[in-house]
Amino acid sequence: MGSKLIIDTDPGVDDAFAISLAARSEDVDLLGVTSVFGNVSLESTTRNALRLLALNGRSDVPVAAGAARPLVHPQQARAGHIHGDDGLSGRSATLPEPVRDVEPGGAIKLLVSLLEAADEPVTIAPIGPLTNIALLLAAYPHLREKIARLVVMGGALAHGNTTAAAEFNVWADPEAARRVLVEESVPCVLVPLDLTHRCAVDTGWLGKLAASGPVGAALERLTPDYLASYRKSLGIDGIAVHDAVAVAEAISPGILRVEDYPIEVDTTFGPGRGSTLVDRRSLGARGEGEGGVAKSSVQVAVDTDLDGLREFLLTRLAR
């Protein structure tokens, strides 16, 4: 098998594409999937993850349910108005019934067991709120060395999608995001909205996916509510597959171009709550110990070959 990967997710239409991308990539050893609250309730995200793996014929992949709420403060809102009440445009029941049961003991237990058993460092792709990952790193710090890197879909450099400043995954649990992105030392790639919006796929791309076979057709059928939302919010005849962009980087390192930047996450209760403050000034302009941005840095994905990435996604999803 290929590189080892765990996906932490809150499916979610774009999560559905991301999970399928990993599940259908022959060069990926998908060790497990953990669910988290986010786009919809934990019960729904967990069921969606099980059904998506069944769709892709991957009953070998264990699924465990994780955090049902943020670390500290209640979640203010979900994203059913974008993804549908069930997370999949109201069409989750069109997917196969789960083939295996959810793993007993929860997401952290599964993450610990998979990492401890791994004979090489494992990449984790958190594509929902970062609550599970914050809990894992806080409770099992010795496992940091078993994590090759985190490839996180989240954050925004220019403006948010949930508030003027904040992207949904970070906004859903800013305290967890800060612990992971700012306070931890695990290598991390942050894949922000600024890039994922540019990687949007149009209805022509979705049509090719639908024509590729039963799995592609099933994925395309999950998109109507999501497509309608993007037509309204961004004026595009297509969808942003945010989480699939991050998973593409997780399974094919270097497909996204990254740059190192200091980062801070706003956990205050003002209008900036949940925003990611990425210091893109030159090293000389930053000075020493000034500016209020933490000294820790992450690799921020800033660019890619857009057509090449879309072709990469389509080719693998259409297998």
Automatic annotation (TrEMBL):
Keywords: Glycosidase, Hydrolase. It comes from the Bacteria. GO terms for molecular function: hydrolase activity. SUPFAM superfamilies: Nucleoside hydrolase. InterPro entries: Inosine/uridine_hydrolase_dom, IUNH, Ribo_hydro-like. The keyword NADP does not apply. Residues 5-309 form the Inosine/uridine-preferring nucleoside hydrolase domain. Pfam families: IU_nuc_hydro. This is Nucleoside hydrolase. It comes from Amycolatopsis acididurans.
